[in-house]
Amino acid sequence: MPAPTSVEEPVMIPVNGDAKAMAKAEKAAADARAKEIAQAAADLKAQKEADKKAAAQKQAEAEIQHLNQQLNQRVSDLVEVNKELERFSWSPSEGANRAGRPAPSEGVRTRGSS
């Protein structure tokens, strides 16, 4: 970001050789240059901070993406395991029902039931 330019009175350099006026003009020019350098340093520091924040955000986004990939893989694995468990747990009773026979727990009367 370029340093904003200030609208100051132009420094008049005397041509008649007046040493005090010449020193005053040189001091004013040096002060103006010092302000420009200080502003440039502040701008550079602000840019470094912005770059540091951007790098940290980029790293955090990459970590989130990696964690999401791991989570999606775990979900996929769990879906497969659940399918296997469903096949295992339903296969005996489904086989009995398809053959027209009641499942082992169906139709069994216990004492006290009517």
How does this structure look, described?
This protein is mainly alpha-helical and 114 residues long. It is 70% helix and 0% strand. It has one helix and no strands. It is rod-shaped, with a radius of gyration of 41 Å. The model has no long low-confidence stretch (mean pLDDT 81).
Helix/strand layout:
Elements: H1 19-98
The count of strands amounts to 0
> What string gives the helices and strands in order?
H
Task: Kindly name the structural category.
Answer: mainly alpha
Q: Specify the biggest β-sheet.
A: none
Alpha-carbon Rg, integer: 41 Å
The total of helices stands at 1
Helix content: over 70%
Determine the mean pLDDT.
Answer: 81
Low-pLDDT stretches: none
- Beta-strand level of the residues, as a percent range? under 5%
Gross morphology:
rod-shaped
Taking the alpha carbons of the first and last residues, their distance comes to 89 Å
Can you give keywords for this protein?
114 residues, mainly alpha, 1 helix
Can you give me a brief rundown of this structure?
The protein is an all-alpha fold and 114 residues long.
